[in-house]
UniProtKB/TrEMBL annotation:
Annotated ranges, domain MmgE/PrpD C-terminal: 290-478
Protein name: MmgE/PrpD family protein
Organism: Microbacterium sediminicola
A Pfam family: MmgE_PrpD_N
Gene3D superfamilies: 2-methylcitrate dehydratase PrpD (1.10.4100.10)
InterPro entries attached to this UniProt entry: MmgE/PrpD_sf (IPR036148), MmgE/PrpD_sf_1 (IPR042183), MmgE/PrpD_sf_2 (IPR042188), MmgE_PrpD (IPR005656), MmgE_PrpD_C (IPR045337), MmgE_PrpD_N (IPR045336)
Domain MmgE/PrpD N-terminal: 20-265
Protein family membership: Belongs to the PrpD family.
Top-level taxonomic group: Bacteria
Length: 508
């Protein structure tokens, strides 16, 4: 039975024992030897496939190339075998923290992998690159990797359920550093004490402001979670050497809650698995069919349906206004409520357009589809009829959709809303959608064959057919893999693909 652990700020003179600190409780979850349930194993396999899909599609993009070159400019550390880098041959290794960095950027670049939304936002698949990199470096087998990933997902999702970071303009990767450190600790069989210290260090080094997702969004958006994964690997290394971390990191009077979150009166109830309870958090997360912010997924599905059923809606001459009635988050983060003029700018970056639901709805409505590259091309964003339609679209917060967004009932939780389209002839079109088609409760929930189809679609332009089959055969045997096979859990680009990518030079 899940237990809610109460967390509040403590004065220094209260002398909070470490065994009563949230970081210690998270470490206790990590060391619990409970078996990973079969359906959790299957979903972990799905998400490794999903990560490889989006990494393949981003191999030649500039931020990914830069991160890859940084990683390859570092030698393998002396105490292990090193870790693979997406796109590179399996024998080309680098130090695990740099592999976590390069692979983390590749996974996040297109904003196209799994998501979990509650009090906070997250892409829990960001746990996979650092945990897998350490598995390869330390020679762990598939069963150990599965246990580590189950913990990483569980810890991040539990923190996301309870503690809002964005409310205080702190970036959501502050929940990722601790979860990745905990997952690595589970996989390596570390002690509660060691994992506790690693969690504290990982949190301390991964708190940053949300300006990375505001205004003119930069390429750092993809690097931020990779940085958190890199910091988690380094935190574990320090903790294994006996070094300690700020404590109590969450509850201290000068700690994260007191000064970065809800202040000295801040308190939360974090749901954690009880001792012996299976780690099932991953089953509450969901992936993306479309390369866009998760809150845009359902809107893309609704827009492409409406545009197909009523082609006249694609012509801005027929449209007076389009209002998307939706949740607080969608309105204020990716909607007109953000008050970001860049969200209506045809010259905006891909990262900014990805966070503009007016743009996304306009393109999906006109095209009846969404493409991870074509839908973001500068020529597509600048098309005059699209710009005209785009500027007629606004969002509005709706209390009921906000309530459903925050609902803890999975049958009620929703990420969509209601659209009201007013035509120039005075008539209206009204429709709504609660969850994306690919959501577990959607019209076409994603299953293994969908993950594989997504992988094939994104990998075929950059991987040889035999490499696609090799990876799929290997990953679907995950719990049985030997350490040597885990070392090959990578995607190798076809000859010439990486040579065509930018190879920027820097300090290293």
């Amino acid at each position: 039975m899940t237990t809610d652990y109460h967390v509040r700020v403590h004065r220094s003179d209260e002398d909070l024992p470490r065994e009563q600190q949230l970081a210690w409780r998270l470490a206790e979850v990590a060391v619990d030897p409970v078996e990973v349930e079969p359906e959790v194993v299957e979903m972990i396999i799905n998400r490794i496939i999903d990560n490889a899909s989006v990494a393949a599609a981003s191999l030649t993009r500039t931020p990914v190339s830069a991160a890859r070159q940084q990683a390859l400019d570092h030698a393998v550390s002396v105490s292990g075998d090193g870790a693979t880098v997406f796109g590179c041959p399996n024998e080309r290794r680098t130090s695990p923290e740099w592999a976590a960095w390069a692979n983390g950027v590749a996974v996040r670049e297109l904003d196209y992998h799994d998501t979990f939304l509650a009090a906070e936002y997250s892409h829990p698949g960001d746990n996979i690159p650092p945990i897998l990199a350490v598995a390869q470096h330390t020679g762990r087998d598939g069963a150990a990797l599965v246990r580590g990933l189950a913990t990483g997902y569980e810890i991040q999702i539990d923190l996301v359920r309870a503690i809002s970071l964005h409310k205080h303009k702190i970036d959501h990767v502050a929940h990722l550093g601790p979860s990745a450190a905990a997952g690595i600790g589970t996989m390596l069989g570390l002690s509660t004490e060691t994992i506790y210290q690693a969690i504290g260090q990982a949190l301390h080094t991964t708190t940053a402001t949300r300006q990375s997702r505001k205004g003119e969004i930069s390429t750092w958006k993809a690097h931020a979670p990779a940085f958190a994964g890199k910091m988690a690997v380094e935190a574990v290394d320090r903790a294994m050497r006996g070094e300690t971390s700020p404590s109590p990191i969450y509850e201290g009077e000068d700690g994260v809650i007191a000064w970065l979150l809800d202040g000295k009166k801040g308190a939360y109830d974090v749901p954690l698995p009880s001792p012996g309870e299976a780690k099932r958090g991953i089953l509450d997360s969901y992936t993306k069919e479309h390369s866009a912010e998760y809150q845009a997924q359902a809107w893309i599905d609704l827009a492409r349906k409406l545009g197909t059923q009523k082609p006249e809606l694609r012509d801005p001459a027929n449209i007076e206004s389009i209002v998307l009635h939706t949740s607080h988050h969608t309105h204020y983060v990716i909607g007109s409520g953000a008050n970001d003029p860049q969200k209506y700018d045809p010259n905006a970056s891909r990262e900014t357009l990805d966070h503009s639901i007016p743009y996304i709805f306009a393109v999906a409505l006109q095209d009846g589809a969404w493409h991870h590259v074509d839908s973001y091309l500068p020529s597509r964003a600048a098309r005059p009829d699209t710009v005209e339609l785009w500027h007629k679209i606004t969002t509005a917060e709706d209390a009921e959709w906000t309530r459903r967004y925050h609902s803890e009932d999975p049958n009620e939780k929703a990420f969509g809303g209601r659209v009201e389209i007013t035509l120039t002839d005075g008539s209206t079109v009204v429709d709504e959608i609660a969850v994306a088609d690919a959501h577990p409760l959607g019209a076409r929930p994603f299953a293994r064959e969908d993950y594989i189809r997504k992988f094939r679609m994104l990998a075929e332009p950059v991987l040889e057919p035999e490499e696609i089959e090799r990876f799929l055969e290997l990953v679907q045997r995950l719990p049985e893999l030997t350490a040597a096979e885990v070392g090959c859990l990578n995607i190798v680009a076809a000859f010439g693909v990486l040579a065509s990518a930018p190879a920027p030079k820097g300090l290293f």
